[in-house]
Amino acid sequence: MIYFDSAATTFQKPRSVAAAMQDAMATMSSPGRGGYPAAMHAADTAFDCRSELADLYHAQSPEQVVFTSSATHGLNIAVKSLVPPGGKAVISGYEHNAVTRPLAALGAKTAIASAPLFESAAVTEAFDHLVTPDTDAVICCHVSNVFGFVQPVEEIAQICQTRNVPLIIDASQSAGLLNLDLTRLGAAFIAMPGHKGLYGPQGTGVLLCGQATPVKTLLEGGTGSLSIQQEMPDFLPDRLEAGTHNMPGIAGLLAGIRYVRQHDPAAICGRERRLAQFAAESLRTMPGIQVYARPDLTAQAGVVSFTAAGHDVEALAAALGERGVAVRAGLHCAPLAHRTAGTLESGTVRLSFSDFNTREEVYQFLIILRELLR
Amino acid sequence: MEHYLIIARSVTYAQRMQRALDRAGIRCQIFRAPRELTETGCAYAVRIQSMDLTAALQALYRESLNPVQIFVSQRGFYREVDL
Lengths: 374, 83
Description:
Number of helices of chain B: 2
Mean pLDDT of chain A: 97
Strand order of the largest sheet of chain B: 2-3-1-4-5
Distance between the termini of chain A: 22 Å
Largest interface: A-B, 24 and 16 residues
Oligomer: heterodimer
Shape of chain A: globular
Strand order of the largest sheet of chain A: 2-8-7-6-5-3-4
Low-confidence stretches of chain A: none
Helix content of chain B: 25-40%
């Protein structure tokens, strides 16, 4: 199989990930639940994972690193901590349902900082126009899951800092690829999955919490701390980690993060971008294909969307799937992004790459696609 | 043997303390705090030798790590130490 759906989840993982998970099953119980070796081994692994992430994203303490089951889980905590029912939020035009649905559930008054695809300055300008001191939160994905558009989070963070408005960054598509500095950006939260660019297993995610950010619980339960107290602890990570930890997942995530750091996120991102550029350039030569990419792929990560005139995107993805090419088609759980880019009616076929893809695979895909479009 | 127990608010906090003490060259161990010492229920403690207390507290405060409580063990009994 040629797997080009890494924006959903990276399917090919470093071997060390499965090995770490197997080891966890055999040697770890639950952190914070005992002082015996299996509990402490689990606690050490969880702490190492938090420390790696704190280091990678410039959090001041490993306690600011909260384990979640997905980026969606983390975004729900973040949004519901900052936006009260009926509150005010400003979001980019490229947000995923993981952001828009929690806001809808809260009945929030959501303003959309809409800007044309790949036009970073226009995104900044739109946020600058909409963010006011009474905004409860600004929420912005670092990279669009549909188009790979890298949004200007540094400029948006500056707007938020100036107006004293908390910022939530959805790093679902940039984690493991692009640099983010929690402390320098002054972000309230950064949410990310463990199972995409960090190469952990499905069912893992991370929420990085700013030091002064107030956090509301989504779940209450056992934490292994302050057991007599019936309110959740007021300190992190315990406040947001009720229940038993996913230790095989966390051990796998730690192995994935170590892989990424060993291979250098910037180098991985560069390889993915080169694959995306090769795919985009080649697709442009095919009649009837519209590619959503800047010619030089600036402001774009390793994700490329396209449509083919006269072909339904789902049918095309299904045909590719039958020929051994895994891609994602449709709206990618991000109807807002498609509405902003003008592709809501058609949807797109999305190619998204990982460190395990090769130029040869892209070449094979192009041959298969050319045959399908004949 | 006389030793001190530094009570931490959580296992993660105890681990931060342990790493800070390691960096300062102070040997320590993490384990569950005895139930009799924790009014609020489950907690973790960092155990150090009595001769290391001053250096340990200096190392912890240098990294803004604050113990919940400190106990000294003498002849099998624990007594809280005023911070």
